Structure of Glutathione S-transferase domain-containing protein:
Amino acid sequence: MEPLTLISATPSPFARMNRIALALKSIPFTLKNEIPWESDTETPKYNPLEKLPILVFPDSDGRPPVYDSAHIQEYIVRKYDDKSPKLITGDVDLDLSIRQIVVLSEGCLDAIVLLRWEGRRDSSKQSQLWLDRQNRKLDGAMRAFNDMVQERKNDGKGYLVGEELTIADIAVVCTVGFIDFGELRPQWKEKYSTLREWFQRLDERKEFAETRPVMFDLKETVV
């Protein structure tokens, strides 16, 4: 099997979800890092929306690129369902719950992106109402994550859905990990102790530890 290529930005929690899934399933891939907002980016060559991550197949394969991290995760679990771990349960209702958690995680990350870009604007042009709205999304997601983990812990379960690790667990770890990395909520570990314990247990796993975010140096002005 020729290696796939995952185009990513080094701090991206979106791409981290895909990197973990590929690694867990032992699917060979090459990681190509770039900054999609800079002039030398190749991102538009593979994704008309000019967003990362993008999963690119070998020329000999003939398949078009796959983009959007949630869709890449879906692609990985469906096209490589013969490789363990499954990362979904196979039960329709449980798998719909898994995908709902992925949606919540990515929505939280989208809010963080919007917060960061608004924060890069000149202070006189920033909208406090907009910042407040994105912060409410972030806080709401964190509460929801903690409640999910607490409910599962009360039932004696270590994973968010089912009995094994799924893409739901991966999504929440990557989201919480990015909040921690960016110091967006410095007191979250004290406020959400149940979530902290769950997060730390999974984040120490090899595939998670090896994919933690690394900040890039943004050199060009973003329009």
Q: What stands out?
A: The domain at 92-210 is CATH 1.20.1050.10 (Glutathione S-transferase Yfyf (Class Pi); Chain A, domain 2). Residues 92-120 form the longest helix (29 residues). The radius of gyration is 18 Å. Strands lie at 4-8, 29-33, 54-56, 66-67.
